Amino acid sequence: MYDSMSRIIWTILLLGYTYVDAASLRCYNGSLDNPLIVPLDFPRPLIDKSCINTSRVTKFFISGFNRNVTGEESVAVLSAYIKRGDVNVLYLDWAEEAKIGGLGTILGYIKAASNTQEVGFRFAAALLNLRDGGLEFTKVHLVGHSLGAQIAGITGNTLRDQGYILQRATCLDPARPLYSGLISFKNGVGPECAKQVDVVHTDPGGYGLAERVGTADFWPNYEGGKTVQPGCSTGEFALLSQDGLCSHILAWKFFVETINECNCFPAASSPDYATWTKTNGTTNSTIYMGEYVSPEARGNYYLVTNDRPLYGKGDEGTNPNNRIRN
Ligand SMILES: *[C@@H]1O[C@H](CO)[C@@H](O)[C@H](O)[C@H]1NC(C)=O
Ligand SMILES: *[C@@H]1O[C@H](CO)[C@@H](O)[C@H](O)[C@H]1NC(C)=O
Ligand SMILES: *[C@@H]1O[C@H](CO)[C@@H](O)[C@H](O)[C@H]1NC(C)=O
Ligand SMILES: *[C@@H]1O[C@H](CO)[C@@H](O)[C@H](O)[C@H]1NC(C)=O
Ligand SMILES: *[C@@H]1O[C@H](CO)[C@@H](O)[C@H](O)[C@H]1NC(C)=O
Questions:
Q1: Residue nearest to atom 6 of ligand 2 (CA)
Q2: Which residues form the signal peptide (predicted)?
Q3: Cβ(56) – ligand 2 distance below 6 Å
Q4: Closest CA to ligand 5's atom 8
Q5: CATH superfamily of domain region 212-326
Q6: What band does 17 get if pLDDT is binned at 50, 70 and 90?
Q7: What are the residue boundaries of the structural domains of the chain, listed by start?
C-alpha cells in the first residue's frame, strides 16, 4: 500500500516538470473568429489593445483534461457569452498542458492534473498583472469544467493567499481524481477561492467531486451517492468513453442553457438530500442554478431536470418526485 502510494506521489512530482509553458489567453471581440491571443505570462495587451473593457464583467472559461478551444463545451460557453454581449469573453488555453500526449490516459491525466498547479499559479499572476492595468477583481468571473474548475479554484486560492479576492467562480463538476482523497492536491475548488463559488455536481463520486466545496452547491438529479443523470446510460464504461462521461458533461450543458435559453433551473435549499426527499422539495428558499444564480445562495440546493434539452424543468424541478428514471 505504502509502496504504491509513494510511487504515485513520485510520479506526480516528476511529471510536474512536464509543464510546457504554452498556456495563453484568448480574448474574443464579438465572435469566435480572430481572437486576440497573448501568452499567459504577458497578458497586458488584452487591456492595452482594449479587448478587455474594464467597465464590464470579464468571463474566463477553462476547459478540462485533454480538451481544447475547439471542444464542444468551449464553443458552447464562449458563444453563449458572446451572444449575450456586454461582457468580456476570454478562454484560458492550457491545451498543451492538458493533453494526453503519448502518455496513455492514466499517466496523461496525472500529468495534466499536476500541471493544473502551475497553470493556476501563472493565471493568478496574470490576473494581478491585468489588475495593475485596471481589471477589477469584483468584475471577474471564472467558469471551469472538470480540471478547468480545479484551475479556477487554485487561481482563486492563490490570489486569496496574497490578499486578493475574485468575485465569482462557477465550478462545473470539478474533477475528482487527484483532487479528492488521501493523495490529492488540497488547493483546488473550495469556498474561499472566490466571494461566490457556485458548484454544479452532475457526476459526484465519478469524474466529479462528491463533497461540498462551494458557497452554494447544486445537486441536479442527485440520488444520494453516485448519480447517473437522466438520459445517460447506466453500467460500466471504458475510461473517458462518451457514455461514461455523459453525467460529467451535463454540468456545462445545464450551465450553457441558463445563459442561452432560459433561467429555468429553480433549486430547493435543503440541508441535505434526505431532508429534500422527505419534504418533497418544500423549501424555505428557492434560487436559480447557473449563470444568474443569486449571490446570496448558501448551502446545498437540489433539483431535477429533463433528460434532454431544454433540460430546465421550471418549478416542477424542485420536487424530487418529478425525477425522470433511467
Ligand atoms: C472589436 O470589433 C469592433 C467592430 O467589429 C472594432 O471596431 C474594434 O476595434 C474591435 N476591438 C478590438 C479590441 O479588436
Ligand atoms: C465599455 O463598456 C461600457 C459598458 O458596457 C460601454 O458603455 C462602453 O462603451 C465600452 N467601451 C468601449 C470602448 O467599447
Ligand atoms: C483540439 O482537440 C481535438 C480533439 O482532440 C483535436 O483534433 C484538435 O487538433 C485540437 N485542436 C487544437 C487547436 O489543438
Ligand atoms: C426551514 O427553516 C426552519 C427554521 O429556520 C428550519 O428549522 C428548517 O429545517 C428549514 N427547512 C428546510 C427544508 O430547510
Ligand atoms: C410526498 O409526496 C408523496 C407522493 O406524491 C406523498 O405520498 C407524500 O405524502 C408527500 N409527503 C409530504 C411530506 O408532502
A1: 55
A2: 1-22
A3: yes
A4: 280
A5: Alpha/Beta hydrolase fold, catalytic domain (3.40.50.1820)
A6: low
A7: 1-194, 212-326
Q: Which atom of ligand 5 is nearest to the CA of 279?
A: 13
Helical (H) or strand (E) element with 87: strand 87-93
Question: Which homologous superfamily is 1-194 in?
Answer: Alpha/Beta hydrolase fold, catalytic domain (3.40.50.1820)
Instruction: Kindly give the distance from the C-alpha atom of residue 139 to the centroid of ligand 3, in angstroms, as a whole number.
Output: 31
Query: Position of cell 481589471?
Result: 135
Q: Tell me if the pTM is above 0.90.
A: yes
Residue type (1 letter), 127:
L
b (16+ CB within 10 A) / e for 241-278: eeebbbbbbbbbbbbbbbbbeebbbbbbbbeebeebbe
* Average confidence (pLDDT) over 148-174: 98
Q: Is the minimum distance from the CB of 283 to ligand 4 under 6 angstroms?
A: yes
Q: For residue 282, which atom of ligand 5 is closest to its CA?
A: 14
